[in-house]
Amino acid sequence: MRRPPKDNEESTRRITRRGLLLGTAWLAFSGGLAARMRYLQVDQADQYRLLADENRIKDRLIAPARGLLWDRNGVPLATNEQNYRVVMVREDAGDPEEALDKLSTLIPMDDVARAKALKAVMDRAPHVPVSVADRLTWEEVSAIAVNGPALPGITPEVGLSRSYPVAEDLCHVVGYVGPVSDYDLSRIDDKDPLLQIPKFQIGKSGVENKLERQLRGQAGNVRNEVNAGGRVIRELDRREGIPGDNVQLTIDAPLQNFIQARLAGESASAVVIDVETGDLLACGSVPTFDPNKFVRGISSADYGELTGNPLNPLQGKAVQGAYPPGSTFKMVTALAALDAGLIDTEETVRCGGYVEVGGRRFHCWKHSGHGHMNLNQSLRNSCDVYYYDLAERVGIERISEMARRLGLGERFDLPMSAVSSGLAPDKAWKRERRGAEWVIGDSLNASIGQGFVLASPLQLSVMTARLATGRAITPRLVKSVNSAEVPLEDAPSLELNENHLRAVRQGMFSVSNNRRGTAFASRIAMDDKRLAGKTGTSQVSNNRVNNRNVPWEQRDHALFVGFAPYDAPKYAVSVVVEHGGGGSKAAAPVARDILLQAMYGGYAPLDAYPSAARSKARQMQNTLELRDFDALREESSRA
Question: What is the average pLDDT across 379-394?
């Protein structure tokens, strides 16, 4: 049937519209394709001509500069130094053994180093660059660069390596870095591609480890054009990495250096804290080790020497050590009794040399007894029987609660390795951990800092700072990050009766300044810098021993805690000398010298010492070998 003319016209219009749309789309597609072909064939002709000749582009990570560490006065504690090294990419090198043979003709590589390098190359993916030699001289790097065409897959590089200018002084605080290992990768949940770079240095201990993410920075990237032999033809693009944060610690490096030198030859530790801010000014531990040896991977012989040393140089005793605090704990027991209203400062207890409880004798260190003792006298003479009597009345729950209030039994959040929480035991603890009930004898032992009670030198310094100020001082180690000051935490009141605190402080003053005080020989002679403190001697076995007649490891630990100046406290100190014997002889003189060094900012004048101690003080000042920190700062500023 014939269609009407009107229908034919409508159909023609529709076909024309569709054709127009299809034609437009086809023209747009053809135009885009032509433009892209022109871009590839004309604009990018040179690039693709090179690629066609078996060239290719490689992306490489750029390791950022690790953040620097400084002391509170700008002394460099951890820096970066240039390190010339050689890297190999297995897929470009062909036969790695042959490549290493050629390399060994240019730089010294013994059989051990060569085998180690070959293993590292074979253990990594073929495209991953592996460091096969480092710490090269400029002449050695130049020789490799000149012979580059004959060394496919081998490239000299300039990187950064960690260095510790003050070496042993702060090894337990700052810690050290070392090459990232498979073990490191297995134990940390960190997807940062930098960790895949062989021999990339990461923090292994101390601040270096605890602030790893801050100090590491962020990776950069470089895009290189390389030929078929893996040689770089040109750099196409570069994005620099973001350096790690620079961190300033609260540590006073010269004071720390003095402590390390003063304690040399002992197995000991000392902590100094600013009682106004909580800043850790020094955190010393001896013996020490050189952290620079760990940066490149310490030798088996050197590591064996450290681990085999009975004085345990790898342990940071100031924060990791946990010791019975001995008589330095007596202020805790006294404050617990005063706070509970169970004694007053003038009430006396008769010391006959021992008390008998439950059919067992608990002896005072003075077997003949001290006679009648009030609070001040009990601290001055360190009478044990006085505190046995308090323990029976006060009970372990109040004693432990006061210990925790003063900072014992608390793990402080510091960026250091294995910070100890110590132990302020109570009945629940013994029931849970020992499966036994608390007995009165446990309380008597705890009252004089023996038995289950444990404290680190750090905790003892915090306890002393809190006694000196009546505030809940919290230690801090980081002063600023990238020059931005870290805000100080508020130190609220301990909410202890000021009269009780004053009585305890007066007792500590008597320890050092009364002729009958256990630390009178280690007093400070300057009136405006008087020292208040407490000696301590803690047993390492259940039996009392004569320290002169037993081997070193069976002798008592010697302790001292104190603060100065007495009238306006600024510094608190704790000293622990392992197996040092008596606290009055082994620890108190060290603490006195440390406080004087802190207050004077250097050697104190001899008239700050008691006349009987001036000869020894002069000898000490003449023989201690201290670092020249002015020269160190100058050298750092030039670098």
Answer: 97
The confidence score (pLDDT) of residue 54 equals: 46
Burial of 274 (0-12, 13-18, 19+ CB in 10 A): buried
- Could you give the CA distance from residue 460 to residue 270 in angstroms, rounded to a whole number? 10
Per-residue pLDDT averaged across 455-471, rounded? Answer: 98
Residues whose CB falls within 8 Å of the CB of residue 629, separated by 6 or more in sequence, listed in order: 75, 253, 254, 257
d(CA 55, CA 226): 6
Distances in Å between the alpha carbon of 284 and those of 13, 42, 255, 313, 602?
A: 96, 69, 9, 12, 17
User: What are φ and ψ of residue 132, in 5° steps?
Assistant: -105, -10
pLDDT tens track for 324-361 = 999 999 999 999 999 999 999 999 999 999 999 988 99
Query: In 367-507, at which residue ranges do the beta strands (DSSP E only) sit?
Result: 371-373, 478-481, 484-485
Q: pLDDT for 476-486, tens place per residue?
A: 999 999 999 99
Whole-number Å distance between alpha carbons of 155 and 87? 5
DSSP symbol at 148? G
Active site residue 327: yes
pLDDT at 490 over 70: yes
Cα–Cα distance for residue pair 529/544, rounded to 1 Å = 36
> HSE of 635 in the Cβ direction (CA atoms, 13 Å)?
12
Give the 3-state secondary structure of residue 287: coil
CB 41 within 8 A of CB 52: no
Overall average pLDDT of the 157-178 stretch: 92
Neighbours of 104 (CB within 10 A): 16
CA angle 401, 403, 405 (to 5 degrees): 70
565 cis-preceded (ω within 30 degrees of 0): yes
Cα 491 to Cα 9, 159, 240, 409, 573: the distances in Å are 94, 44, 42, 18, 19
Let me know: does 176 contact 294? Beta carbons within 8 Å: yes
Prediction pTM value: 0.86
Pair of tokens at residue 455:
């404290």
Strand duo 268-274 + 280-286: pairing: antiparallel
Of 6-10, 203-207, 360-364, which gets the smallest average pLDDT?
6-10
Helix, strand, coil proportions of the chain in percent (round to 5)?
A: 45, 20, 35
The neighbouring-strand residues paired with 436 are none
DSSP β-ladder status, 360-363 and 354-357? antiparallel
Rounded CA gap, 470 and 569, in Å?
11
pLDDT digits (tens, 9 = 90+) for 4-35: 655 556 656 666 766 677 777 778 777 778 77
Catalytic residue from among 161, 205, 267, 327? 327
Tell me the per-residue pLDDT of 33-70, one tens digit each, with 9 for 90 and over: 877 777 766 666 666 555 554 456 777 777 889 999 99
Count Cα neighbours of 589 within 13 Å in the Cβ-side half-sphere: 15
152 three-class SS: coil
> Greatest CA separation found in the chain?
140
Burial of 621 (0-12, 13-18, 19+ CB in 10 A): middle
Q: What are phi and psi of 401, to 5 degrees?
A: -65, -40
Is residue 370 classed as helix, strand or coil in its secondary structure? coil
Q: Which amino acid is at 492?
A: P
> Strands 69-70 and 247-249: what pairing?
parallel
CB atoms within 10 A of CB 71: 26
